[in-house]
C-alpha cells in the first residue's frame, strides 16, 4: 500500500488488505539493505491469521521514496511517526537484524507503542567490519553478494528452498538491488554506530521472544544470547539456519511467532 | 555460510541434499498427485501462497521443485517453473504477461511452432505480434509500441542458426521498459546464460540438450528477477490485483519472483501444463552430465564442420562458428565456448538427393528432434515441409536441399562413415541430373 507520508511516497505491505481498526497489528521491521520482501512468507500468513500487518519499506528501500535515515534513532523516529500517521496506537513489533536494533530503541523511547517484541536473528549491537562497509560504498553489488552468501546457511549453496522453484541466493541479490545503491552502506553505518542497545534492552519489562540462528554469521548466536540475558523476560529459540531466518525457516518462525502472540492474549 | 558453487557442481547438487529420513542420495521421485495437510491452517496458507510447500502436483511437486531450483541456479535466475514442454513454457509466459489488445515483438527466424503460436493462435485471442529480423536493432526498436508487453527471440534460431545480439536487444528493451524473453534451448546455460546479458526471462525446451537423452518432454521458465513490473497500467496481470488471494499484486507481494508466482498461481493452476515427476527425474539425470555432454557435442560439431566443409556432396554449410556466418562476430562474443551442435547444410541434387541421403544413413537417426545424445538428422524438404513448394520453402527461410544435423556424442569417425554412405546415394541422384 502506498501513502504520501511526510512529503514522500512511502510503501508498506499490508498483505493486500486494508488495515482494520479493531484488529491487533503486527509491524515487521526489515534489516540492513533489505525491504518488506524479507518477510514474504510472514506477511500474508499473519494477515490470514486475523492480524493487521504493516511491513514498511524504510525511505530509499524497496518502493519507498525519501531521504534515507542515517541512524537507528532516526529509524525509530520514522517508524513511530509512520504508525502515528496510520493511527496505530499499539503493535507487536517483529524486527530482523537491523530491525531488532530499531525495535529495541523503540521499546525504550516509545514504550507506549509496544504490545509485544520479537527479535529475529538480532543482537543489542551489530558492529560491521570495515571491509564490508567499504565494499558497500565502492561496489554495492559485490557487497550484496557477500551478504547473501554469508547470510544464508549452507543450504543456500544448494538452492534448497521450501518455496518451490526458488533460488534464494539470486533472489536475495535481486531484493537488495531494488534499493537505492547507497542504501546498504548507510544502513551498515547506522548499525555500526548504534551503542544504546544494552541500555534499551534493560528497560524492557514485557515478555519478549528472540528467534536466533545457530549458524548466523551476521549477528552471531552468542551476541543474540547476550541480548536475551539483558532483557528481563525473553524466551528464545535457536533454529538451525543462517541469518536470513525468515526465508530459511519460514514455517518454524511463523509457528513460534504465532505461539508467542497467543501467549500475549 | 553459503558457498557459490561452480557450474559442474550445481549441475549435480542444486535443489537437493540427501533425504533426511531415508538418506537417499539420488533425488526421490515423488510420484504423488497430492499432499496431506497438517491442519486447516496449513492448507489455507498453501492455497493462498502465504508460505512455500506443495498442495497438488499440477501446481508443484518436490521432484519437480528440485529440477526447477537446479535450473534457476544454473541460469542465474531467482526462480523457475517447470512444465510439460518448451511450447507450454512459451504459452505460459505469453499468457502471464499479455491480454487481448496487447502486442509482442518477436524474431521472424524462430522455431516454426513458436511462430505459429504467436502468428495464428494468439491472434485469435487478440494478441498481435510484429515479426522482426532478430539482428536488426533499429527494426526491433521501431516495432516496440506503447502496448508492446514482450520482446521474444532465440539465442540461436531454429533452424536457420541466426544468433541474436542479446545484450544489445536487452538494452533496447530496458530503455523501452519491455521484458525480454529468450528461448535458450539450443545453447543451454552451459554455453550462455541470457540473464547475465540482460534478458529477463529464459525459456527452455528441456526435451533437448538439457534432458539430453531423448526420453522426456519438458519445458521451463526461468525468471531473472531483474524486471520492474511496477507499472500497473502496463503490466496489470503482474502488478494489478489478482482475481484470487484477496486481489493481491504479485509485484508487491513477491517482488523479483512476481512473474513465477503469477505463472504458478494462474498458468499452472488454470491451464495445467504440469510436468510428470518421472520426467523431472529423467531430466535431472540429464542435467548431471550437461557440461560433459555439451563439451563433447561442441568437440564433435567442430570435427563435423571440418568434414562437411570439404565434402563434394555439400553445396553450402551453415553454423555460427564458421567465419562466413553473418552472425559469427556476435556468436564469438556471447557464445565463446561454441555455438551449439546443430549444423545445417545443403546437399547437391536438391530435394530428391536430400531424400536419398536420409534414406541411406543408418547410424544417424531420422527424426524430428534435436539435442539427443545420438546424432539426429532431418530433411525438411521431404518431411516437415514436404507439402511446400521450393518457393514456399524459401519464404520460410528454408531450401529444399537443406539437411538439419544435430551432432551427437558418438565417435565422430563413425558418423562420418555413415554420412559418406548417405552422400554416395545422394550423388547418384545429383549425377543423374547433371
Report what the structure shows.
The complex is a heterodimer of chains A (265) and B (434). With 265 residues, chain A is α/β, with parallel strands linked by helices. Chain A has a single domain, classed as Rossmann fold, CATH 3.40.50.1820. Helices cover 42% and strands 17% of the residues of chain A. An 8-stranded mixed β-sheet of chain A has the order 1-2-4-3-5-6-7-8, with helices on both faces. In chain A, a hairpin with a 2-residue loop joins strand 1 and strand 2. In chain A, helix 1 crosses helix 11, helix 2 packs across helix 3 and helix 5 runs antiparallel to helix 6. The radius of gyration of chain A is 17 Å and the shape is globular. The mean pLDDT of chain A is 96. Chain B folds into 2 domains: 280 residues, Type I PLP-dependent aspartate aminotransferase-like (Major domain) (Aspartate Aminotransferase, domain 2, 3-Layer(aba) Sandwich), CATH 3.40.640.10; 143 residues, Aspartate Aminotransferase, domain 1, CATH 3.90.1150. Chain B is 40% helix and 13% strand. In chain B, helix 5 links the parallel strand 2 and strand 3. In chain B, helix 3 runs parallel beside helix 12, helix 4 packs across helix 11 and helix 15 packs antiparallel against helix 17. The longest helix of chain B is centred in the last third of the chain and has 22 residues. Chain B starts with 6 loop residues before the first helix and ends with a helix.
Amino acid at each position: 500500500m502506498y501513502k504520501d507520508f511526510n512529503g514522500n511516497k512511502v510503501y508498506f505491505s499490508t498483505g493486500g488488505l486494508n488495515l482494520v481498526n479493531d484488529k491487533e497489528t503486527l509491524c515487521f521491521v526489515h534489516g540492513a539493505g533489505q525491504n518488506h520482501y524479507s518477510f514474504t512468507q510472514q506477511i500474508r500468513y499473519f494477515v490470514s491469521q486475523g492480524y493487521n500487518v504493516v511491513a514498511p519499506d524504510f525511505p530509499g528501500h524497496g518502493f519507498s521514496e525519501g531521504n534515507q535515515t542515517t541512524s537507528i534513532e532516526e529509524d525509530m523516529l520514522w517508524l513511530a511517526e509512520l504508525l502515528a500517521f496510520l493511527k496505530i496506537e499499539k503493535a507487536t513489533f517483529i524486527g530482523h537484524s537491523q530491525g531488532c536494533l530499531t525495535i529495541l530503541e523503540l521499546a525504550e523511547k516509545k514504550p507506549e507503542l509496544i504490545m509485544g517484541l520479537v527479535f529475529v536473528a538480532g543482537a543489542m549491537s551489530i558492529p560491521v567490519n570495515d571491509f564490508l562497509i567499504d565494499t558497500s560504498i565502492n561496489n554495492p553489488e559485490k557487497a550484496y553478494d557477500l551478504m547473501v552468501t554469508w547470510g544464508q546457511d549452507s543450504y543456500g549453496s544448494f538452492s534448497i528452498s521450501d518455496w518451490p522453484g526458488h533460488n534464494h541466493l539470486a533472489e536475495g541479490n535481486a531484493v537488495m538491488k531494488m534499493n537505492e545503491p547507497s542504501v546498504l552502506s548507510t544502513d551498515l553505518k547506522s548499525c555500526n554506530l548504534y551503542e544504546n542497545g544494552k541500555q534499551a534492552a534493560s528497560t524492557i519489562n514485557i515478555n519478549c521472544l528472540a528467534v536466533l540462528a545457530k549458524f548466523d554469521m551476521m549477528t552471531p548466536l552468542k551476541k543474540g544470547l547476550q541480548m536475551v540475558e539483558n532483557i528481563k523476560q525473553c524466551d528464545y529459540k535457536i533454529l538451525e539456519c543462517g541469518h536470513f531466518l525468515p526465508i530459511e525457516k519460514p514455517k518454524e518462525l511463523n509457528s513460534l511467532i504465532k505461539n508467542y502472540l497467543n501467549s500475549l492474549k | 555460510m553459503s558457498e557459490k558453487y561452480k557450474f559442474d557442481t550445481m549441475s549435480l547438487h542444486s535443489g537437493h541434499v540427501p533425504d533426511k529420513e531415508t538418506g537417499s542420495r539420488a533425488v526421490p521421485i515423488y510420484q504423488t498427485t497430492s499432499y496431506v495437510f497438517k491442519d486447516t491452517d496449513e492448507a489455507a496458507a498453501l492455497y493462498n501462497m502465504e508460505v512455500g510447500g506443495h498442495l497438488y502436483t499440477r501446481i508443484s511437486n518436490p521432484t519437480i521443485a528440485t529440477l526447477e531450483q537446479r535450473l534457476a541456479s544454473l541460469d542465474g535466475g531467482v526462480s523457475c517453473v517447470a512444465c510439460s514442454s518448451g511450447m507450454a513454457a512459451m504459452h505460459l509466459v505469453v499468457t502471464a504477461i499479455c491480454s487481448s489488445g496487447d502486442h509482442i515483438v518477436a524474431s521472424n527466424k524462430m522455431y516454426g511452432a513458436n511462430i505459429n503460436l504467436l502468428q495464428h493462435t494468439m491472434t485469435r485471442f487478440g494478441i498481435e505480434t510484429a515479426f522482426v529480423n532478430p539482428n536488426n536493432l533499429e527494426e526491433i526498436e521501431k516495432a516496440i509500441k506503447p502496448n508492446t508487453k514482450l520482446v521474444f527471440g532465440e539465442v540461436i534460431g531454429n533452424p536457420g542458426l541466426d544468433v541474436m545480439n542479446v545484450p544489445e536487444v536487452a538494452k533496447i528493451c530496458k530503455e523501452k521498459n519491455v521484458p525480454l524473453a529468450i528461448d535458450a534451448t539450443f545453447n543451454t546455460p552451459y554455453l550462455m546464460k541470457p540473464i547475465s546479458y540482460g534478458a529477463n526471462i529464459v525459456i527452455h525446451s528441456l526435451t533437448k540438450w538439457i534432458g539430453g537423452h531423448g526420453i522426456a518432454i519438458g519445458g521451463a521458465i526461468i525468471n531473472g528477477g531483474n524486471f520492474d513490473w511496477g507499472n500497473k497500467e502496463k503490466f496489470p496481470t503482474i502488478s494489478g490485483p489478482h482475481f484470487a488471494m484477496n486481489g493481491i499484486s504479485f509485484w508487491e507481494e513477491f517482488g523479483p519472483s512476481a512473474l513465477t508466482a503469477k505463472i504458478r498461481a494462474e498458468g499452472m493452476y488454470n491451464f495445467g501444463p504440469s510436468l510428470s515427476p518421472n520426467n523431472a527425474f529423467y531430466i535431472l539425470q540429464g542435467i548431471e552430465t550437461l557440461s560433459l555432454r555439451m563439451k563433447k557435442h561442441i568437440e564433435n560439431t567442430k570435427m563435423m564442420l571440418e568434414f562437411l566443409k570439404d565434402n563434394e556432396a555439400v553445396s553450402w554449410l551453415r553454423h555460427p562458428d564458421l567465419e562466413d556466418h553473418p552472425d559469427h562476430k556476435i556468436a564469438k562474443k556471447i557464445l565463446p565456448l561454441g555455438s551449439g551442435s546443430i549444423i545445417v547444410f545443403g546437399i547437391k541434387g536438391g530435394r530428391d538427393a536430400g531424400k536419398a541421403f536420409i534414406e541411406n544413413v543408418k547410424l544417424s537417426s531420422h527424426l524430428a528432434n534435436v539435442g539427443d545424445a545420438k546424432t539426429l538428422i532431418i530433411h525438411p524438404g521431404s518431411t516437415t515441409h514436404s507439402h511446400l513448394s521450393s518457393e514456399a520453402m524459401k519464404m520460410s527461410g528454408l531450401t529444399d536441399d537443406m539437411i538439419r544435423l544435430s551432432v551427437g556424442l558418438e565417435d565422430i569417425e563413425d558418423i562420418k562413415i555413415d554420412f559418406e554412405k548417405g552422400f554416395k546415394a545422394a550423388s547418384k541422384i545429383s549425377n543423374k541430373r547433371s
